[in-house]
Write a structure and sequence with these properties.
264 residues
């Protein structure tokens, strides 16, 4: 060791200095000290700059949950008041947006149940009557033809019955075309248009709902921040703090407030 000291005096000095620092740290913090024994530090977690309204004196003994520090919530309360108005307006807009959507859905039901189905039933009834009319006309025409062949009916009667049968078939075809148009075109076009109004109203309702949710979340966040202005002791022990932490001082987000050290 003596030869090493004579050969490398600077290295020796550095080693001794490091050993001295280690000894000094060991004297400041006794062996076996844990973070729990050093205490729990508390920092300001609120945004902006807030004024300390109340601060329990340093050295005081506190119990877990005791009020240690209270920050001025007036700025946050002003923001909360404004946000409550925004939330109320967003809620009203969301509720009002439900009315057009409900009305649009009712319009679809009203058309299908109150317009389309009665029209379809009416056409089905006319088609049934038309089919019966065609059958009667054809039967009458066949009878006229047989009677004409036997010399029991005039040609004019056969001709009149043929015209009546053709007219009955034309009426039946007309009703069938109306039914086909109603089912394949009118209903589909009308329902599609009405469903478009439903989707448009629903989209607006969802947008209003999302806006209300955001406003409600912002309001709850401010309410929690106002609640957090009352800073409580995280554990029981002795309170430690020092300037600039004092009553009437301003603190910013993330700034150290105090430490509570448990007593042995």
């Amino acid at each position: 060791m003596s030869s090493f000291l004579r050969a490398r005096p600077l290295a020796c000095f550095a080693v001794l200095a490091m050993m001295g620092v280690a000894v000094a740290h060991a004297q400041d913090e006794p062996e076996g000290t844990t973070p729990a024994r050093r205490g729990v530090e508390v920092y300001n977690k609120l945004p902006g700059r807030l004024t300390i309204l109340y601060l329990r004196p340093a050295g005081s003994m506190v119990k877990k949950g005791d009020l240690v520090c209270e920050l001025d919530p007036s700025t946050l309360k002003e923001k909360l008041s404004s946000q409550q108005a925004v939330t109320s307006g967003a809620e009203a807009a969301y509720k009002n947006a439900r009315l057009p959507r409900e009305a649009a859905e009712s319009a679809v039901t009203e058309y299908v149940e109150g317009i389309y189905k009665p029209q379809l039933q009416s056409l089905n009834g006319k088609i049934s009557l038309g089919e019966a009319e065609v059958k009667r006309a054809e039967t009458k025409l066949e009878t006229s033809k047989r009677q004409f062949e036997k010399g029991l009916a005039a040609k004019e009667r056969v001709t009149a019955d043929e015209i009546a049968a053709q007219r009955a078939k034309l009426n039946l075809d007309q009703f069938k075309r109306k039914k086909e148009t109603l089912e394949k075109f009118t209903r589909e076009k009308t329902v599609k248009s009405l469903q478009g109004e439903v989707e448009k109203a629903r989209s607006d309702e969802l947008a209003k709902q999302a806006a209300h949710g955001l406003a409600q979340a912002a309001q709850e966040r401010l309410e929690k921040q106002i609640e957090d202005c009352r800073v409580l002791a995280p554990i029981s022990g002795r309170l430690i703090h020092s300037p600039p932490i004092e009553e009437a001082a301003d603190v910013s987000e993330g700034q150290f407030l105090f430490r509570v050290v448990p007593e042995n």
